[in-house]
Design goal:
α2 crosses α5. The longest helix has 27 residues, at 2-28. With 258 residues, the chain is an alpha/beta fold. The model is unreliable at 20-26 (pLDDT under 50). It contains ten helices and six strands; from the N terminus they run αβαααααβααβαβαββ. It has two domains: 30-45 and 114-247, 3-Layer(aba) Sandwich (Rossmann fold); 47-109, Putative phosphatase, domain 2 (DNA polymerase, domain 1). The radius of gyration is 20 Å and the shape is globular. The protein has a six-stranded parallel sheet, with helices on both faces. Belongs to the HAD-like hydrolase superfamily. CbbY/CbbZ/Gph/YieH family. Its EC number is 3.1.3.96. Pfam families: Hydrolase.
Length: 258
């Protein structure tokens, strides 16, 4: 009996805290109704693999892959990634040749990837509460199919997927807003962009979301500088630290305590 009273008391305290957080957040953040997820480095732990793919190709031509070039590439379409790599690293090959090698290496190395911390929990929570959400990734549809092959059930609950490297409606990649505007338009109710919350890890993606008129939660790599976080509405360490109620979304359930 006393144990039950303690659980109820703790639940009341936590709900009070959640309500207080929501009240404060209302002044700082706007309530949203739809969510848009990036994929690489945000939901799937792929960025180190991509980094090694480009690094290995650069080494093949006797070049290194410095951090500043990686930051220019992060979040871009596959074609744009190859253009930047060839031009910035001054590689002795055509963009087409590099692109062909890059695509094949991606298909060979991206099948066994892990989910990022908190990704599955957040996706299942939004799905349970019928919050519409979609994917907006710079990758091609072929690449996405490979990367998500071990998580088909989880990714089947997304309303739709916009793959920037192969979608004809995405004219320009991130930092342009195209991919996020296309993503919003393809929801059944085509919400105003201001009603969409984007989750991103890359500075280029944050710039694109901001340009689209959307709020963006950034989960950055540890090497991202404070200046590169400036376009984010909110910066968190990982998805486990996200509090949905801050943006007017259903809060995570309160765990029972003894």
């Amino acid at each position: 009996m006393f144990g039950l009273q303690k659980v109820l008391r703790n639940q009341i305290v936590r709900m009070t805290i959640i309500n207080q957080i929501s009240a404060v957040a209302t002044a700082q953040y706007h309530k949203v109704s739809h969510v848009v997820f990036d994929l690489d480095g945000l939901l799937l732990d792929t960025e180190k693999i991509y980094e090694k793919i480009v690094e290995d190709l650069a080494h093949k031509y006797g070049k290194t892959y410095p951090w500043d070039v990686r930051m220019k590439i992060l979040g871009t379409t596959e074609r744009r990634t190859c253009e930047i790599a060839v031009n910035e690293l001054k590689l002795p090959c055509t963009v087409d040749d590099f692109h062909k090698q890059f695509k094949q290496s991606c298909l060979d190395n991206l099948a066994d990837v892990y989910l990022m911390k908190g990704a599955e929990r957040l996706i299942k929570h939004l799905h349970k509460h019928k919050v519409p959400f979609c994917l907006a990734t710079s990758s091609s549809i072929e690449s996405v199919e490979v990367k998500t092959s071990h998580y088909k059930d989880l990714f089947s609950v997304f309303n739709h997927k916009v793959c920037g490297s192969s979608d004809p409606d995405v004219k320009f990649g991130k930092t342009a807003p195209d991919i996020f505007l296309v993503a919003a338009k393809r929801f059944p109710d085509s919400p105003d962009p201001s009603k969409c919350l984007v989750f991103e890890d890359a500075p280029n993606g944050c710039k694109a979301a901001k340009a689209a008129g959307m709020q963006v939660v950034m989960v950055p790599d540890s090497h991202v500088t404070e200046k590169q976080k400036e376009d984010a509405t909110l910066v968190i360490k990982d998805l486990l630290h996200f509090k949905p109620e801050v943006f007017g979304l259903p809060p995570f359930p309160i765990e029972n305590e003894e």
